[in-house]
Design a protein that fits this description.
single chain; 179 residues; mainly alpha; 2 domains; 3-stranded antiparallel sheet; 3 helices; 3 strands
């Protein structure tokens, strides 16, 4: 069957078996070393993950306090901005009213210097008084049952009292409406 040297084939097979066993031992040794290295790397990875978690907590705490401070400062600034805007609006309104006052004073001065009588018909004055009466009644102004224009004083009369007397009540009513 076999034409060759049986002992040479057995020697070659034995040498090959020895070589395979040696490689198998080296492979087993390598697998064990890789397993140990894997465990070591996993342990280091866990340590690094723990350290990252602690650092993240520290960062979050530091940032959280800074964010809280910034938020408080921002809220204060928003509140101050609102106050400043209100003050500016009031200042602008005061300027507008002062300009209106000057205009009215100048108009009154011109009118007193250059008195001209203007004739307004009794029916127009009655219509005007009726409109004022309706408005005062809608506002629940006390004593607004009868409003008419008194030609002798050239002013409105409300339930027998002149407008000047009624101003105090009117101002009180306006204050109640604005509240």
């Amino acid at each position: 069957m076999c034409d060759g040297n049986v002992s040479a084939v057995v020697n070659a097979a034995t040498a090959e078996i020895m070589k395979i066993r040696k490689l198998n031992r080296e492979l087993d040794f390598t697998v064990i070393k890789l397993h140990e290295e894997r465990l070591q790397l996993k342990e280091e990875s866990n340590k690094i993950a723990d350290k990252i978690s602690r650092l993240q907590i520290t960062i979050d705490e530091a940032v959280s306090s800074e964010v809280a401070k910034a938020r408080a400062t921002f809220s204060d600034l928003v509140e101050k901005r609102f106050d400043v805007r209100q003050a500016l609006n009031l200042f602008q309104r005061i300027q507008e009213l002062e300009e209106l006052k000057v205009t009215i004073e100048n108009t009154q001065k011109c009118e007193s210097d250059d008195v001209q009588k203007v004739f307004i018909s009794k029916s127009i004055l009655d219509d005007f008084a009726k409109i004022v009466q309706d408005i005062l009644q809608a506002w629940h102004f006390p004593g607004a049952e009868r409003v008419y224009f008194d030609d002798s004083i050239k002013d409105l009369t409300i339930s027998g009292d002149t407008r000047v007397i009624m101003v105090k009540g009117f101002v009180l009513l306006l204050m109640q409406l604005s509240i």
